[in-house]
Amino acid sequence: MTGSRLSFSLHTMRSAPVAVCTQLMFKSVIRLAFMTPLTAALMTAFMLATFPASSASVVQSEISKLGAHESDVENIVVKATRPYYHDTLERILPLYSYSQSTVAKGNSINDVLVQSPVISLNGQGGQIQNVSIRGFSRWRIQTLLNGVPIFSDRRAGASAGFIPPSWITQVSVVPGAASTYLGSGAIGGAVNLQIATPNEQNLYVGMLNNGETQEYGYEGFADSSLTPNTDKRHAYSGSTDWKISYRNADNTQDANGNALFEQFEQTALFIRHQPEQSNITEAWSLFSHNSNVGKSSSDFPQDRITTYPKNTHWLGKVSAVFDNMTSNVWWHQSQLDTQTLRPEARINESSSNAFDYGSDIGGRQRVGKWRVNWQAQLQGREGVRINESETPITSLGSQVTPEAAISAQALSIHALSLRALSIQALPAQVAKTDAFNITTLDASEIGLAGVLDASRTFQKLSVAVGTRVDWQRQSGSGQNIKKLNVSGFTGAIYALSPHWQASVYVSSAFRNPSLTERFFSGVTPRGTVLGNQRLDTEQSVNIQGGISYKNNCLLATTEVFSQNIHHYIERIEISEDVLEYVNLDSATINGLSYTANWAPHKSKLSLQLSGAWIKGEDESGNVIADIPAHNHRLTAEYQVGTIRFFSNVLYRASKTHVADGERSLDSVVTLDIGASLPFNNKVNGRVSIRNFTNQLFYVSADDRAAFAQGRSIQFALRFLF
Where in or outside the cell is it found (predicted)? Predict the structure, then answer.
């Protein structure tokens, strides 16, 4: 990716030594052999095909026979710096990406995501809070890390909170129906988080006063190809980088000084290797262990205290090239434990486990004047299992009150473990008997897909079309449910003048019900929830048009969009405290977004203004959930010598038309400020203040969302070696 452009970056990986990754991959295949023979056979065949060595010169020679230019070979095939279809989308859409350079640092990666005018915080707060894209959220948007999709069985959707925010240097946002390239989970769009390669070793120390957050990190980089007397034909020569991070935080506070249950502890390790001459172009792996993560909610602490005692992730990816094709294998092992204390009532505990995997192979060809891309994909989930238990709290003379729970919490070191809170800290008051211990979800799924797109430029007009055929089988509760879906897109961009362009984009998308929606049956913080095996697949059509202007100092884009969804899946109450997933007839989300960047050449000042208006209704004209309030953001940067100042003014409009499970929101204006301070060539400093004016406002319209953090001051130092 270059400049300020956005890309999906599904192939931008670098990591662990080849021998290690080879061993990990074959361990994964052995494991999969006990789960699904078809998956094991396909992945084994894929790896055996991609691991024989071949030189880059042979690859370039073969690609040139297909009419590709040398630049295409370097960027797409050999180095695989971006996905094969990036050029297709870039031909018909104005695309953007976002970095951390103008963000006042907080505790979450979401602080970077919300720079996009179409992304808003959604649901309740804390480390695993999620976002919405153009009013789509939960399982309707796809989160990726360097191209690896992150799945979750929580209704709130997948969260990237297990990734240290300082690791993410750039975020790509894909709004609208994107199923053609990314499958079922991207009916509403996607975000791709990118971990950049450091070019030198450095030590990072960060402090945040609100919540006494601490972060310590180390990044390393080694390039054996630059070492004297290195045999460049050696299979293991190339570049290797790694990252280590430790973070922890206590409870934060809102603007009124009230506690927000946002404490956590996180340890993470990342390693990536890019061989110099090998079929393997890049391999990486990440492990993250998160413990005692608090869920910030308005229920805390009187009605409910929800903690995630354990949240672990191990994922990775290996990218390879052979002949004129690129290929990838990825995996993701995850576990999330949840403990919910309802004072004076009971403790609910659950443990969710899953092993996700996938592979793909694709290539590029020229057919006449058309550039054609194709890809075959395999993706599956195995061992998706949720175990639940409930323990009633009974008193010998009195019940455990919220005040007693809070008192016990204050006596614990970090006030993070619900067992310490409600059981170990109150042994004389509480007698407990397991009410039940059951498996509420035990399911799996596997899918195969073929993707094809073609693009061409006719003088001032560029056009592109694409399609996806997707087959999926879901298994659970003794049932096998198979679905075949087709999606596609077409788009065009026309140069009206040297400075003006107009674009149109039409795409269809689908979303198969998640395993939770189909097969789950258990207790959640919202009550008893029942899955529905009769659910239909959501179908959607997205239409958007845009106009953009560009000159030497100004780049501005405005987009109008409308997306209609049929068989919209929602969770409704069928009796008191009992909910079930059902299909609604349809829903429509309409909106407008804009972005304007003003950066004159050699000017010390640059500005960015962005915003969005979004509206969503069902077929009866009722407001649907998760539609964000209108928002507008002004970002300013000013350079004085080596010091760079920045500020963000965010206006969030009021929201009075709300859906069930939501509350009205008042309008609010917040201010973030900060500065980057390079002390010398080896020490870089940074200071920032979030919510500078200490505004009190809810993080989202969810009726259980807590207030946002009050004024927070962050200091950070990076020492280069």
Answer: Cell outer membrane
Nearest to 27 by CA among 406, 407, 244, 314: 314
**Total structural domains within the chain:** 1
284-342 pLDDT, tens digit each: 999 999 999 999 988 888 888 999 999 999 999 999 998 889 999 999 999 999 998 88
Question: Three-class SS of residue 4?
Answer: coil
Confidence of residue 28 (pLDDT cuts 50, 70, 90): very low
* Amino acid residing at 618: D
Asked if residue 37 is part of any domain, the answer here is no
Query: Is 389 a domain residue?
Result: yes
Residue 703 in tokens? 């009726």
Within-domain flag for 32: no
Residue 392: CB partners within 8 Å, gap ≥ 6?
345, 346, 432, 433, 435
Q: Per-residue confidence at 529, pLDDT binned at 50, 70, 90?
A: confident
Distance set, CA 517 to CA 138, 512, 582 (Å): 12, 10, 9
User: Taking 50 as the threshold, does the pLDDT of residue 51 lie above it?
Assistant: no
Strand-pair partners of 189: 175
User: Which residues are CB-contacts of 74 (< 8 A; sequence separation ≥ 6)?
Assistant: none
Distance (Å) of CA 673 to CA 200, 570, 693: 28, 39, 10
Residue 301's Cα: distance from chain center in Å?
29
Nearest to 661 by CA among 588, 570, 566: 570
Among 208, 100, 196, residue whose Cα is nearest residue 716:
208
pLDDT for the residue 99:
77
Q: From the centroid of its chain, how far is CA 427?
A: 41
Nearest to 588 by CA among 623, 545, 632: 623
Q: Which two tokens stand for residue 86?
A: 């990036």
End-to-end CA gap in the chain: 27
Cβ 625 vs Cβ 614: under 8 Å: no
Give the rounded distance of the alpha carbon of 60 from its chain centre: 34
Phi-psi region of 281 (alpha: psi -120 to 50; beta: other; left: phi over 0): alpha
Contact 165/714 with Cβ under 8 angstroms? no
For residue 161, is it within any domain? no
CA distance 160 to 698: 21
DSSP type of residue 376: E
* Residue among 327, 77, 330, 109 at smallest CA distance from 215: 109
Backbone φ and ψ for 653, nearest 5 degrees, come out as -70, 165
Query: pTM, whole model, 2 decimals?
Result: 0.81
Helix (H) or strand (E) holding 330: strand 325-342
Q: Radius of gyration over alpha carbons of the chain, in Å? A: 25
88-119 pLDDT per residue, tens: 777 777 667 777 777 877 678 888 888 888 88
Neighbours of 384 (CB within 10 A): 26
d(CA 236, CA 190): 34
- β-strand partners of 283: 273, 318
Q: Is 258 in a helix, a strand, or coil?
A: coil
Strands 479-495, 436-458: pairing kind: unpaired
Tell me the residue range of the domain where 213 lies.
195-720
- Report the SS3 class of residue 533: coil
Classified as helix, coil or strand, 24 is: helix
